[in-house]
Design goal:
The chain is an alpha/beta fold. Helix content is about 45%, strand content about 15%. Strands 11-12-8-7-13-14 form a 6-stranded parallel β-sheet, with helices on both faces. Strands 4-3-5-6-15 form a 5-stranded mixed β-sheet, with helices on both faces. Strands 1-2-16 form a 3-stranded antiparallel β-sheet. The chain binds nicotinamide-adenine-dinucleotide. Nicotinamide-adenine-dinucleotide (NAD) binds next to helix 8 and helix 9.
Length: about 525
């Protein structure tokens, strides 16, 4: 019904995907996204949609992933609301021209960077957090003044259909159309020309997205996945570390891009860690996680079979049970997993936690650096030198010490991968900047032509030397803060000077007075 309604609003001719792209382009070219008031109004409407429709969204996620009603705000909606509120609050500052340093030759000119909308953005989302991963980038697109075609994942079908039904009711229909469908629809969308493609999903599809975007020289943001390692140092509180790791690994049934994929620790730590994870699982999900309302399900049969095949040949120390009829896989822990195994080559993206033995922190660093750069790295350690060593000698999209996942919740931190885990970043101001064109602006006046003479022909040694000296002079910070400092320093200097002069005058005056009286005295006596 909703699908027909969407189709009937499409102009005739071309595929639905092309029509959505064209419609968004025409709406963008109308110029209505340029005023900040319009963007603010759309952001308020998006916020309204999320708060008014929280129950519908939670129901859709229950159907897609058996997500608990309490986890929906905790894992997706509150973060989204915060992102929208931040954008509403800061938009005028983010969108304002930013003054930059000047050279001697441009001292009297206006030199600034002016954020500009890119145009039409294609947002392709993944299924594991279907709302945060489509609406998160959309917040940045709206704030930056772009139009956006939103393509949610076909795997989280209920969320996808709900998003397609809701978004046009709250936001401008033409500027932000939702296109649903699978691989062929996404491929058709990728054949259209966009000004930016924001893709969240697997690295293998990320490569295809980048190839398709290259045909139009369209820049991409790729929020990809991979194996995020977690190192547990023997000096840390294993009980607390186990609780945090257990939460981050098994929340959303292990289907989180920044979930700790595997744990590296010394053999002496393994037994302790396993016992603590066992106790934590009991605490979180009870003796039978299958009947816990807080424990999720695998998104579809294909992923269910994939995860079971990764577990083949292992004897789980915890869990291992499954039920195909419900796509249930118990929280599972495997110990002493060989580094060369298939389980250690592919991203697990399910509730299976392998423990890999390393001899010490150096061995762990070597292990991490031999593999693709991860999206997240987790380090449990209390020794400051050990923490510093890990930060210094490894790389990853983000790093979190003594916890998991929480860096995602901070809008001030840029979220994104490096190398195989992705390119580009978003959240908060970073989303705005990622989806803006930072235009360089130099506005000169036609006066003071004498300043320019040294660069014009005919050149001679003196002119060339003068031009080179001017070009080599350091850049000058003329920002407001520097200006205020300069003015304050000048005022203080002038006040001090005046005080000094007054003191000198008084002193000279006293001296004169003394001489005057002494002269009279001498005259009479
Ligand atoms: P998915 O299968 O839902 O695919 C994501 C999108 O790509 C969907 O919209 C889908 O239609 C499209 N797609 C799939 N195959 C395609 C093809 N051949 N050509 C064009 N488009 C295609 O999601 P997924 O890839 O299974 O997602 C899981 C992966 O995403 C994991 O690797 C996970 O780590 C990663 N992920 C990353 C982040 C992040 O923020 N970095 C967040 C969530 C998930």
């Amino acid at each position: 019904m909703v699908y027909l309604a969407v189709c009937s609003t499409m102009p005739p001719g071309g595929s639905l995907e092309r029509q959505a792209a064209t419609r968004a382009r025409q709406a963008f070219l109308s110029g209505r996204t340029r005023p900040l008031e319009f963007r603010l109004q759309q952001l308020h409407a998006l916020l309204k949609m999320i708060t008014e429709r929280e129950t519908d969204i939670a129901t859709a996620l229950k159907q897609d992933l058996n997500r608990s009603q309490y986890d929906t705000p905790l894992l997706e909606l509150t973060g989204l609301e915060n992102e929208i509120k931040l954008a509403i609050d800061k938009l005028s500052v983010w969108a304002a021209p930013r003054a930059v340093e000047r050279s001697v030759l441009t001292l009297s000119d206006q030199v600034y960077v002016r954020p500009q909308p890119l145009g039409v953005v294609l947002i392709i989302g993944a299924w594991n957090y279907p709302w945060a991963l489509t609406l998160g980038p959309l917040v940045g697109a709206i704030a930056a003044g772009n139009a956006a075609v939103v393509k949610p994942s076909e795997l989280s079908e209920c969320s996808s259909l709900l998003l397609r039904a809701l978004l046009p009711r709250y936001l401008d229909k033409d500027l932000y159309p939702v296109v649903t469908g699978g691989v062929s629809e996404t491929q058709e969308l990728l054949r259209q020309r966009f000004d930016h493609v924001f893709y969240t999903g697997s690295s293998s599809v990320g490569r295809l997205v980048m190839e398709a975007a290259a045909a139009h020289l369209t820049p991409v943001t790729l929020e990809l996945g991979g194996k995020s390692p977690c190192y547990v140092h023997p000096d840390c509180n294993i009980r607390v570390a186990a609780r945090r790791i257990t939460w981050g690994k098994f929340v959303n049934c292990g289907q989180t891009c920044i979930a700790p994929d595997y744990v590296l620790c010394e053999p002496s730590v393994q037994n302790q860690l396993i016992e603590c994870i066992r106790l934590t699982l009991l605490e979180f999900y009870g003796a039978d996680p299958k009947s816990s309302p807080d424990y999720g399900r695998i998104i579809n049969q294909r992923h269910f079979n994939r995860i079971l095949s990764l577990m083949e040949g292992y004897n789980p120390v915890i869990g291992g049970q499954s039920d195909a009829s419900q796509r249930y896989i118990a929280p599972t822990v495997l110990r002493d997993v060989p580094p060369q195994s298939r389980l250690m080559q592919e991203e697990i993206f399910g509730p299976v936690l392998p423990l890999v033995a390393v001899s010490d922190i150096d061995d762990a660093i070597r292990f991490i650096n031999e593999r693709e750069k991860p999206l997240a790295l987790y380090v449990f350690c209390t020794d400051q030198k050990g923490i510093e060593k890990m930060l210094e000698e490894t790389t990853s999209g983000g790093v979190l010490v003594n916890d998991v996942l929480m860096h995602y919740t901070l809008s001030s931190l840029p979220f994104g991968g490096v190398g195989h885990s992705g390119m580009g970043r978003y959240h908060g101001k970073h989303s705005f900047e990622q989806l803006s064109h930072m235009r360089s602006c130099l506005v000169r006046s036609l006066a003071m032509e004498s300043v320019n003479l040294s660069r014009y022909p005919p050149q001679d040694r003196r002119r060339a030397r003068r031009a080179r000296m001017a070009m080599r002079a350091p850049l000058i910070d003329m920002s407001r803060r520097t200006f205020v400092w300069a003015v304050s320093a000048t005022v203080i200097a002038v006040v001090l000077m005046v005080t000094l002069v007054v003191i000198l005058l008084i002193a000279a005056g006293l001296n004169c007075t003394c001489w005057y009286w002494r002269g009279i005295y001498n005259y009479f006596w």
